[in-house]
Write a sequence for this structure.
């Protein structure tokens, strides 16, 4: 492989699929999509925008489950092969060890989780309700059994908080996307930095909306992947049509030491909602990526994305091909 993938471990047991003959795209969908169906749980109206990670020699994840009261909840799940998931019926019951934090921020709702291992634990970020307004919640777990919540990173209104997988220049680094209280008609990606996961500052602008497919708003997706070419970041972009928003995803490569600096930004989307399960559901025309699993030796990549705010799909790529594609179509 021409592109080196840094800091990731080999992935066992995933039933990878090769690019289908004749496929012209750099990303291809899993043939059995969607991999998680909306009614997999007794309590679920829908299961989508979810985060998965390697855990021991298997896989674990935090899943967005909108229950049948249409409340947005986070549930833990486990898998042997990263495709068939066993998701808990009960939502995660966050432990808040600081009574002042617990009092200030009782659980209301949470959605669109991301999960990443940094140093000694798995960190979870999500869109968390504070005073019934969205901002970035943060928590961690050592074992996917007990989950601890700490202070929210920011004031409302904010969404799409995504951590980098290691400190950069001795600071934790997180993307976020300041927003409004509703279905925000704007949105740029920013970076914030923190010495301790509690106090966030040194905010930097990364990117504004761009070409048609991402002309309304953008937001970071899976955890960035460190490569010899820079941070490979998959993100969603939104187009506003006469029939509502259309969520696709694309990719950008950021500078390793100053990740607010864009090196290459792909002018085209990589995947847009075109299959029935992406176009039909509670919110039509949504492909919303929240996680990616990457095997460093083979460069195989599996991207997990919410489909139509209803179920979870999976798509594959080859990291070196993807990096070359982004560079070739950069503007
Ligand atoms: C965004 C978020 C996502 C959702 C998307 C499309 O604002 O709420 O959770 O997938 O809208 O409805």
């Amino acid at each position: 492989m021409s592109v080196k993938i840094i800091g990731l471990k080999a992935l066992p047991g995933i039933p990878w699929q090769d690019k289908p003959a004749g496929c012209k795209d750099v990303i291809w969908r899993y043939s059995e999509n969607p991999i998680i169906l909306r009614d997999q749980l007794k309590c679920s109206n829908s299961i989508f925008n979810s985060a998965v990670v390697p855990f021991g020699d298997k896989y674990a994840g935090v899943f967005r489950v909108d229950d049948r009261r249409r409340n947005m909840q986070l549930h833990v799940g486990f898998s042997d092969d990263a495709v068939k998931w066993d998701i808990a019926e009960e939502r995660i019951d966050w432990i808040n060890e600081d009574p002042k934090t617990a009092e200030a921020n009782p659980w209301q709702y949470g959605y669109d989780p991301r999960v990443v291992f940094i140093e000694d634990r798995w960190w979870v970020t999500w869109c968390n309700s504070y005073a019934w307004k969205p901002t970035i919640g943060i928590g961690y777990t050592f074992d996917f059994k007990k989950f601890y919540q700490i202070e929210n990173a920011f004031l409302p209104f904010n969404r799409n908080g995504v951590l980098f997988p290691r400190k950069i220049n001795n600071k934790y680094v997180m993307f976020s996307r300041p927003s409004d209280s509703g279905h925000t008609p704007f949105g740029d990606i920013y970076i914030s930095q923190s010495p301790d996961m509690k106090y966030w500052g040194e905010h930097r602008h990364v990117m504004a909306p761009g070409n048609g497919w991402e002309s309304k708003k953008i937001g970071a997706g899976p955890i960035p992947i460190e490569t010899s070419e820079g941070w490979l970041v998959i993100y969603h972009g939104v187009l506003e049509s006469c029939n509502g928003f259309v969520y696709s995803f694309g990719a950008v490569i950021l500078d390793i030491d100053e990740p607010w600096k864009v090196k290459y930004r792909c002018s085209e989307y990589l995947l847009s909602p075109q299959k029935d399960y992406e176009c039909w559901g509670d919110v039509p025309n949504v492909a919303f990526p929240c996680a990616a699993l990457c095997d460093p030796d083979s460069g195989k990549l599996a991207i997990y994305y919410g489909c139509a705010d209803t179920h979870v799909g999976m798509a594959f790529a080859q990291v070196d091909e993807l990096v070359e594609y982004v560079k070739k179509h950069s503007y």
About this structure: The domain at 28-328 is CATH 2.115.10.20 (Tachylectin-2; Chain A). The radius of gyration is 18 Å.
